[in-house]
Amino acid sequence: MPRLNPEKLLQRVQAEEREEQRGKLKIYLGAAPGVGKTYTMLQDALAKRAQGLDVVVGVVESHGRTEIEALLEKLEILPKKTIDYRGKQLVEFDLDAALKRNPGLILMDEMAHTNAPGLRHTKRWQDIKELLDCGIDVYTTLNVQHIESRTDVASQIIHAHVKETVPDSMIELAETIELVDLPPEDLIKRLQEGKVYFPVQAEIAKDNYFRKGNLAALRELALRVTAERVGAQVLLYRQGQGIKHIWPSKEKILVCVGPGPRSLKLIRTARRLAAGLQGEWIAVYVDTPRQQDRRNSAIQNLHLAAQLGAETRVLTGFDIVKEIMNFAHEQNVTQIIVWKKVRPRWLNLLRGSLADEIVRKSGEIDVYVVTGEVSDTRWGVKKESSLSFAKEESWSIYSIAIGITAIATLINLFLSHYLPSSDIVMVYLLGVATVALFAKTGPSLLASISSVLAYKFFFLPPYYSFMVTYLQHVFTLGDMFLVSLIISHFTILTRHQAALARSAENQMAALHTLSRRLARTRGVNNLLETGVQYMADAFDSHVLAMLPEEGLLAVKAHSRGAPPLLDAKEQSVAQWVYDLGQAAGLGTETLSFSKSLYVPLLTSQGAIGVLSISPITEHLLTPEEMHLLETCTNQIALAIEVERKNDGSNPIA
User: Fold this and answer.
1) Which of 115, 117, 488, 642 is packed most tightly, with the most Cβ within 10 A?
2) Closest CA to 125 of 134, 35, 138, 135
């Protein structure tokens, strides 16, 4: 029996508790009117009533269809509410009457319907949500073109604007989505027989909406929506049950991203393969302590993958292959794309390669190995910046590592009069662990080697010599070296993972606190001060907030330690971001020479200002951190927009 992930198990229990309190939503999804959504919904409702469930009809329109009217006669229909609108009597669903009736199941046809003015909610899906929140189960119908994320695609297919939409959050809220499907030929036949629209309407629809090509394309779109929903449910089930075996129900590609130009070729290859297979793809980078100096290059490659449509993830760990394979099985990945550098065979035998290890442990996952010569002008800049950063790195930490070893040796020279030589090894291991607490792999390795040499030189015969004359001393020194390496490696890894977890926790806490503080703050300047301080804490950065003043951007708020002014070059970058409403600067493909990342404060009226974010640690933001950054800026911009509307007489103060 596979071991369940405790965090995912807790999330699952919490989700089940929420589901028990909320009503169940079932959506009957179709590609077009007339496929039989309402008829299927009514038949299922009658079956539920036969089982003893209290079923009522909230809103179901028969549109003159006799088969629908025959089914409606067998069900209780709630009375409608009459609304007087511009001299006309409009009949609408009575939400309060439904809540008072409190049935076990209510039928709500046409989920995307717009209610008459004067009702509590403007859209029927909002009525449905309130019914669900009150614990009432709902059956409803929906055509695929009304789903918010599919509206643009559907509009291109039918060559008409879709006015009524349902947010994707309501689709995700559904416990079940049942696809009611009908081939285009049969649907056109139903239209001609008058089973969809009245004769006059049917003739118009046949020449426009109900063309065979349109119906086929909409049918494919509905099938895709249903398949995506089922795929998400399968993934949640696999994660909840701790299933590690791959279920290749659909293609899912994982590309292993690292620093360097090879990853650019891998990303483009993965994009072409995913497009050809019409599958999802994920770009993954494993952030290990050994690659910290090249992390920025890998993050830039992840940004390219995100621009090409990939989901991006940053994993942490010391064993790259283990982290990749665990993630691949968790996400039900069917194919992995990895780079392999062509090297002499003897070198492969000595060192091995990432590609070989992944192939060896891939099991039921297909692995595509990419090789070849790579040259990319973009890499020249990255490599140069990486080298310059390495040159600027201080070597004092290596001196500290030697100093700690020397201190441990002095302590051991004192303790050697009272303790056997085998016991004083622990002092050297303590010194190695101390170095690993604040240093990287290089200084820790130096501390391990120097500790072993010092122990042999001072405490093992022949003394004051590095010559080993006894076989048992070889094993002693070897064990000491291996143990010191293991301690240093796991200390560095733990410190690295703790730093990442602390950073993520601080970001989410700051986002929550930012929302509350902005809600309690009044005045644009005060809102900016609150926003920049919390963003500085969340992203470990210096933050500036700029608003237009007499045609130019002026700094209105800055975090602690941030410069209150920008030089001419940085000012021009900020102005460009404000004028075009697009992010630019550090870590982006636009004006990347800048020392800071500039993000516009966007509202419904366009850009109202710019935020400047300068990371203190010189690390680029990951795509996930960029999304969080955009969320924070959107909150600040929304708060400023609301404040200006409430105090139009003084929009800046």
Assistant:
1) 488
2) 138
Query: What is the rounded CA–CA span in Å between residue 95 and residue 108?
Result: 11
- The first and second tokens of residue 20, run together, are 């028990």
Q: Do the Cβ atoms of 518 and 531 come closer than 8 Å?
A: yes
Q: How far is the CA of 564 from the CAs of 52, 137, 311, 546, 605, in angstroms?
A: 71, 56, 37, 10, 27
Backbone torsions φ then ψ of 566, nearest 5 degrees: -115, 150
pTM over 0.85: no
Bridge partners, 77 (sequence order): 57
**Domain 6-239, classified CATH 3.40.50.300, yes or no:** yes
Contact 266, 371 (CB under 8 A): no
pLDDT tens across 101-110, in order?
Answer: 999 999 999 9
Contact 99, 122 (CB under 8 A): no
Decide if 265 contacts 374 (C-beta within 8 A).
Answer: yes
Distance of alpha carbon 196 from alpha carbon 202, whole angstroms: 7
Could you identify the residue written with the tokens 């079932």? 26
Q: Please determine, for residue 388, whether its predicted confidence score (pLDDT) is greater than 50.
A: no
Range with the poorest average pLDDT among 33-47, 87-101, 257-271, 553-567: 553-567
How far apart (Å, rounded) are the C-alpha atoms in residues 230 and 227?
Answer: 5
Per DSSP (E only), the strands in 144-302 are 176-179, 252-256, 280-287
CATH superfamily of 252-385: HUPs (3.40.50.620)
Token readout for 496 is 């690295």
d(CA 21, CA 375): 58
Which superfamily is assigned to 521-646 in CATH?
A: GAF domain (3.30.450.40)
Residue pair 638/603 in contact (Cβ under 8 Å)? The answer is: yes
Residue 632 clears pLDDT 70, i.e. is over it: yes
Gap between the Cα atoms of 244 and 361, Å rounded: 13
| Domain positions in the chain | 6-239, 252-385, 416-489, 521-646
* Pairwise CA distance, residues 495 & 489, whole Å: 10
